[in-house]
Automatic annotation (TrEMBL):
The keyword Oxidoreductase does not apply. It comes from the Bacteria. This is Serine/threonine-protein kinase. PROSITE patterns: PROTEIN_KINASE_DOM. InterPro entries: Kinase-like_dom_sf (IPR011009), Prot_kinase_dom (IPR000719). It comes from Alkalibacillus salilacus. Keywords: Kinase, Transferase. SUPFAM superfamilies: Protein kinase-like (PK-like). Residues 25-298 form the Protein kinase domain.
Amino acid sequence: MSSIHPTVRLANGTRINGLWHNRQYHIKQLLGEGARGSTYLVEASGKKMALKISRDPSVVTAEANILKKLQRAQSVSLGPSLIDVDDGYLPNRMKQSFYVMEYVQGKPMTSLVGKLSLVDLGRLMSRLLSELHQLHSMGYIFGDLKLDNMIFDDGLKRIRLVDVGGVTQVGRGIREYTSIYDRGFWRLGGRKADPTYDLFALAICLMHAERPLKFDSNGQQQMLWRFLSSSRRITPFQQVIKQALLGKYRDALHMKRDLDLALQQLSLSRPVQGRTTKTNTQRISERDLITLSGMVAFNGLMIYILL
C-alpha cells in the first residue's frame, strides 16, 4: 500500500474534464470513501455513473484492470462495468487519476437482509455463489465481501457487488477487509487470499439475517458460535454457515450445493404443512358428521318410542 492518503474531497456541482477522452463529469454526491479513494455519483451525457478517484494513481490502474477482467468473464456481471479511465484537473489545479463505472441502481442489502424471506435470501446468495465461483476460477477473490458492498439490482433481480478495491489475486495477502467479515479477526484462518475467505464472509452475511452482528473488538470465537446456536430465523442454514465458517467447503459450488439442499427442504416444508392441516380438517369434519348423524338417529328413536 502507498503511503499517500487516497481520499479526494469534491464539492457537489464540481465538474471534472477528462484530459485524454474529453468527457465531462458533473459531481452529484459522495457515494463513499475508504482506504483506497473516494467514489462519487456523477452525471455525464444525461446518464448517471459512478466515478472512483484516488490520490494514488496505482489504485485507479489496479481497480480498472480488475473491472476489465470481470467484464471478460463469460455470463458474469458481478461487478459494475467499466466506462472510462482518465486523468483530470481538480479545482485546485491538481491532476488526479480516476475511472468511471456503471452506477448500479437498487436497494442496499444492509436494509434488505432482515426483510427478505429466508427462501428469497437463500436463492439470491445461491446465485451469488455461482458467480463467485467464476471469479475464483479466474484466480481472484472478492476480498472485502460484505453486505455494505452488495446492491440488489432492481432490474436484474439479483445481487451485484460494488467497490472492487478488495479484489485480490489468489495466493496474495488480503489488503482490504472489514473486521466482522474477516476470518483473521475471529482467529478462524489467515488473510491469504483463497476461495474459502469469501465463503467465510458470505456465511457472516447470512448470519445478519437473524439480527445485526455487533461484537466487541476481541473477535472471540465463542461469541460467534453462541450467536449461531441461539439463532432461530436462520436455523435451516445453520449447518451451511458453520461449515463455511470452519473453512470446510472446497469451493463456492460445494457451499452452493448444500445451500440449495437446505432451500429445497425449506420450500418443501411449507406445502407439507398445508396438506397436513387440510387432512386434519377433513378428518375433523368426517368425525363431526358421524357424531351428528348418530345424534339425529338417537333423537328419531326417542320420538318414535314416546309416540
